[in-house]
Amino acid sequence: MRRAAAVAIVGIALWLSGAVLAPVTAGPDGGWLAALPSWPALAAAIAAALVLVAWRPPAHLMALLPLIAVALPWMPGVDAGLVYAGPLIVLVWAAVLTLGWGSAAAASIRTCSCATDPWRAAIAAFLIALAWTSIAAWRVAPMRPSGDEPHYLIVTQSLLADGDLRIENNHTQRDYAAYTVGELPPQYLVRGRDGQIYPVHAPGLPALAMPAFAAGGYTGVVIFMILVMALASALVWRIAWLAAGDMGAAWFGWAAVVASCTWTFQSFLVFPDALGAASVACGLWLVLRLDASERAMPRPAAIAAVGLALALLPWLHTRFAVVAAGLGLMIVWRLYRLRPRDIAVFAVAPVAGAAAWFAFFQSIYGTPNPIAQWGGANESQLAWIAGGLSGLLFDQQFGLLPYAPALAAGLAGLLAGTAAGWRRATRLQAAVLVVGAYVAASASYAMWWAGLSVPARLLTVLLPLLAPAGAVVWLRLRHPVARAALAAALGWTIFATASLAFTARGQLAWNARQNKAALWFDWAVPLAGWTDALPAFFRADDLLGRESLPLPIFYGLVLVWIAAIAAAITASAVIAVWLRRRSPASVSVQAITITALVLALPVATVLALRMQGADASAPARAQLAFLSHLAGGTRVVFDLGRRRIVPAGEAIAAMRISLPPSAGAESRGVGPVPAGRYRITANQGGADADVLIGRGQPIASLDHGPIELALPVAVNALIVRGAADRELVLEPAALWPARGRQRALRALRYNAVTAYFVDDRIYAEEQAFWVGGARVATVVLQADPGIRAVPLEVTNGPVQNHVSVLGADQPFSRDLAPGETAIVSVTFDADGVARLQIDARSGFIPAQIDAASQDHRFLGVYIRIKE
To answer: What is the spatial distance between Cα 122 and Cα 140, in angstroms, rounded to a whole number?
Structure first.
């Protein structure tokens, strides 16, 4: 009976996990629909559950308790349950599989050498980190280099090519063209005393990256960063083990740091924070070795190497000098107590480095002041610390803990006190002073969020300190409730980093303060406006100024979420005490803890929204997701109000997507919108309105009443410009089968034809469009009624090229001379649609052909749709 129940629960829950829910219309009385996977999918889900249970039954039926999250969206008050109607359900399944079937894997891991031998474990930590960050770097490659990365790279080029830091000539020569598109003006605030432009960024990273850049350019520097951080990851494992003396605790402390998105992304981004973290890991290793009195003293060569690592910190960034000084004093104090003669061995590099550091500023700017390159600008103020600290920790865009809650264990370990396990690790008070001084320096900085950045970049250098503290916390907290909570935090951390790196090629990882909401949280809960319930430092309509503290609502939301999570853990502990009399399996207590945390998310969401008087429902987004799933394949549509299955066509025809008036908004948009036929109505009011797809010219107008719109391909966003005082209604009439995952990013009208551009390989202009050089681009053409065929005028650029067009009347593929034009005939199908694939093998940059041009695009062929 237990196995049969497990099969039924797992199979049905797996099937329900693929459901998409949406209201028929906006409002409390609109009714809800659910698009479920097909009946064969249900049979496949039950078969998969049967195989799983037949292979190994769950450790306890209670292990399936967290699957209550699957049922939450179907319960009354469905808005809060929609938290799990999306990617977050993956976390619930990971918890269930771990609770029910993880014991076998755990037994195998315990016998592995990486769980019994510290040195082999450190090697395994290196290899895992190397693979993890390499794959992440490959996935995120289209987003890089960005931000300040090109500026560090061009300083490297200046050192290699000219042997100096005067970068004006390198920018003039466009040395950055190999890794950056467009113009890159030099980044500086004041000139040197010789009148030359010197970089505002410290020269440490460019100097260290010189051999890698010389060998492999930008890619070589990325490989260099990955290797250094993989070695630092191994050292992080080692210091976690030195602190806790326990293999399991060391792996937890290591994973909490290395799996965080901050550490992972900085491992391949060209910023000094990663090398700073590696240097801090070296210093912390020596501190822990000196504190472990039962071990032999480190060799003088190792002590001198750590001194060199700490001496590099100020050269990487001025703010790292605080950490270097703190760790240096801790090491000197311990050496004084143990072997004073080694103080000189350790101090040679830091003293020489500090003297050279001050002399560097004196020689360039005429003052030893290490912030001279900022020209005396007031970039930091003590009054900003409170706001910067709260943002660095809790902001949904740039905070550390929303993406890596496992690091809360390390923070708690630093602040908790002198537990017995910590006494072997280091002097807590000194470590807290180091952390506090650096955090204060970073939080007081005017731009603590670091611009267009991955979360908590400025805290990267402190992460090695959190590994030993987190390991000790894991060691000390042995209760099943505490272990389950820590494991859940680690699971969230891994899930967040993996999805940031592997979804949308990393685009979700970079936030801008103008967004007011985190892209990743928007993705994690796609059917509700969950970001309205999360702490957001920059939510104010007027965008808080540098000197502003967060609004009180920010602190209130932080407290709501902390209280909800704490209440879930406390309730789990109380239930565990009550169950202890019946000698329950530890998996039951852990399952109850995970379930309590699962329920805490929608509860905290409701409380946070009510505190603000807000509503996080996103009916239009849910409705469009519902339609996209119906267009993607066979679905079982269930009407939750009438409790019956309805035909898909009936559900589509009943749906009414409303965009309420938005006073002052220039445009409103919804998306993605699947391919199909729609009716768009602008209710009441008399203002004109135009329909656009992406940026560009209108493809239709609402000036004279409702319009019928046929979309031959799914579009990323359907935008209505104007009529801000009118309610807009989108009503689907029919959906067309999805062709892959292509979505039009933009559409423009050319005579009697609308062109839908489904990738970024086309540069659309008002009269025609360019296909990028050495690119294969896809365009979908839709003709007005009565148009059966059109000629395409294909004009080559000023270089020899080979051009092919697939989807024309006759396949076109031939060499074109510079400036040569060819005519290609295109006939539309019965629906008035033609899908073309255009390949330009070569290309040119206009600015390199014409000195007066400022166009640095790489262009291939020019396509004009003729009458």
So the answer is: 27
- Integer Cα distance of 737 and 712 in angstroms: 10
Which residues lie closer than 8 Å to 268 by C-beta, 6 or more apart? 133, 134, 136, 137, 140, 144, 222, 225, 226, 229
Q: 764 in helix, strand or coil?
A: strand
* Nearest alpha carbon to residue 465 among 497, 501, 416, 425: 425
Q: What DSSP string describes 848-865?
A: HH-TT------EEEEEEE
Question: Distances from the Cα of 830 to the Cαs of 289, 707, 788, in angstroms?
Answer: 77, 21, 9
Retrieve residue 109's tokens. Answer: 């891991």
Q: What is the pLDDT of residue 293?
A: 55
Q: What is the strand order of the sheet 727-735 is part of?
A: 657-659, 727-735, 676-683, 707-711
Dihedral angle, C-alpha 217, 219, 220, 221, nearest 10 °: 90
Supply the DSSP string of 594-648, one letter for each residue. Answer: HHHHHHHHHHHHHHHHHHHT---B-HHHHHHHHHHHHHHS-EEEEETTTTEEE-H
C-alpha 24/C-alpha 423 separation (Å) is 61
Round to whole Å and give the CA distance between 370 and 360.
9
C-beta of residue 682 within 8 angstroms of C-beta of residue 668 = no
Block mean pLDDT (10 aa), the chain, length 867: 90 93 80 91 95 88 92 75 90 93 74 77 95 94 82 94 91 85 82 90 94 94 96 95 90 96 95 96 90 73 95 94 91 88 93 94 90 73 83 93 96 68 52 82 84 89 92 90 95 96 88 84 88 84 48 88 96 86 74 94 91 81 90 86 88 89 75 91 72 83 83 90 82 82 87 90 90 91 92 94 90 92 93 92 88 85 90
Three-class SS state of 411: helix
3-class DSSP state of 760: coil
For tokens 């037994």, what's the residue? 107
Instruction: Determine the angle formed by the axes of helices 300-316 and 320-338, rounding to 10 degrees.
Output: 160
> Beta partners for 34?
21, 638
CA dist 106 and 248 (Å) reads 11
**CA 379/CA 677 separation, integer angstroms:** 54
Q: Does the N-terminal peptide bond of residue 145 adopt cis geometry, omega within 30 degrees of 0?
A: yes
DSSP string, 689-756: EEEEESSSS-SEE-TTS-EEEEESS-BS-EEEEE-TTSEEEEEEEEE----TT--BSEEEEETTEEEE
Note the Cα 855 to chain centre separation in Å. 31
Q: Which of 133, 146, 90 is nearest to 454 (CA)?
A: 146
Residue 779 and residue 755 in contact, taking contact as beta carbons nearer than 8 Å = yes
Six-digit token pair at 121?
A: 């474990």
Answer whether 571's CB lies under 8 Å from 596's CB: yes
Cβ neighbours around 667 below 10 Å, total: 15
Instruction: Say what the pLDDT of residue 164 is.
Output: 92
**Structure tokens that stand for 325 in this block:** 């000084």
